Amino acid sequence: MARPHAVVVPYPGSGHINPALQLSKLLHRHGVFITFVVTEHNLRRAWAAVEGAAGGREGFRIEAIPDGMLDADRDAQDYDISLSKATVNHGAAPLRELVARLRDRSAPGVPPVTCVLPTTLMSFALDVARELGVPSMVLAALGAAPLMAEMRLRELKERGYLPLKDESCLTNGYLEKTIIDWIPGMPPISLGDVSSFVRTTDPDDFGLWFNITEANNCTKAGSLIINTFDALEADVLAALRAEYPRIYTVGQLGTMLRLGEEASDDDSIDLSLWKHDTECLAWLDEQEPGSVVYANFGSLTVLTAAQLAEFAWGLAATGHPFLLVVREDLVHGGGELPPEFLAETAERRRVVTWCPQEPVLRHRAVGCFLTHCGWNSMLESIAAGVPMVCWPVFADQYTNRKYACELWGVGLRLDEEVRREQVAGRVREAMGSEEMRKSAAGWKAEAEAAARPGGSSHENLLGLVKALKEGSL
Ligand code: UDP
């Protein structure tokens, strides 16, 4: 039987590249040949930041295609929208050329392509696969619940909830008071928590259109892979599986890599778009167990300078040591932390521009995570047993917060308007809550059980590899 060869095509942001790379490493450990496709822009960034990022490894290659984006748009405030538009409009042609080349004229030692595996938001890759007669699977870069919620955006439009009637709906409590109680497998959820893309009065809003299209296009793939584990999202997974039977839950991917029994030398394959500060781990070593607050807003969130200052002063007021990640582009136009804040907290803080988040969350010193509720961040926190203080901003992050706070018992809410007193209060509460610590430890144990041989994610990974080997996607 020929060796299976998956062309993995993540959407060009960290929230997709990271889980796609983790899944690729797992598949590679099980004998699948991987071609990992990144954009030329991201490869230049990663190449500069991480030595040997594209380092050759038997059966694991990295290829780059253009993202079609104008350099002027890279600094735009709505960067993510520009990136999505460029990717949709310009991604198909170079990918088609690449997949056709790998299918027809593979280099020596490179088996013919047997599967195209994009992440969500990249459904043009599924069309390319179909045109070229190559089977496909898709990796959801979000959980089962937020995926199910986004799949229902179309029905919300058909039932007249969307677009919103007028601007007042954004501020008069309509989003919170309007309860949607008919999404399969999900508890009643406020309209505002379904997705950030409901916040529009424009019938042609790009974000809404794009997410409706992409969420539903997942089903064009032969199978759907989700970075979650069965115990965490049992109800909604049962409902999703009733609609799409070929679902492989293989998360939490980081735990799968860490606990997997397969030998590997893949640690040095790293495509981080920012340079990690690794010294923060040594700083954490010096702190008391469970004493540190870790604050990070992910790879895309943009804050105002005032919001950053409120978060910073809120952290200072907790009295705890803290690790604060301020990405270079976290505040549009540049945001310096207030000098008095830096002076006052010098003894008990570390501020870095990017950190190795999974090892940080797993460090015994970390007691709580102040997060923007990106799916990867939340799942990494759950798998590490760390309670969260939740401040969602965008996309699926509102649904994620609802689950963390109301269903999983591991999160506390912050108001949209950031106030230092509330930040300090909620962080202290999360740090001191025995109940949340217990829930978080319980989920960590579930995540590890799922990842061990015999566990649901481990079994599903084996099933996925078998399907790839047999060509039965
Ligand atoms: N991440 C990291 N270091 C940082 C910030 C983020 O390694 O300083 C990683 C994090 O572990 C996660 C990803 O970047 O895997 C962010 O994805 P997420 O879905 O949480 O949020 P997004 O960036 O897509 O908003």
From TrEMBL:
InterPro entries: UDP_glucos_trans, UDP_glycos_trans_CS
One GO molecular-function entry: quercetin 7-O-glucosyltransferase activity
CDD domains: GT1_Gtf-like
Keyword presence, Hydrolase: no
Keyword set, alphabetical order: Glycosyltransferase, Transferase
EC number assigned by the record: 2.4.1.-
A Pfam family: UDPGT
SUPFAM superfamilies, A to Z: UDP-Glycosyltransferase/glycogen phosphorylase
Gene3D superfamilies the record matches: Glycogen Phosphorylase B
PANTHER family found in the cross-reference section: GLUCOSYL/GLUCURONOSYL TRANSFERASES, GLYCOSYLTRANSFERASE
The protein's name: Glycosyltransferase
Organism: Panicum virgatum
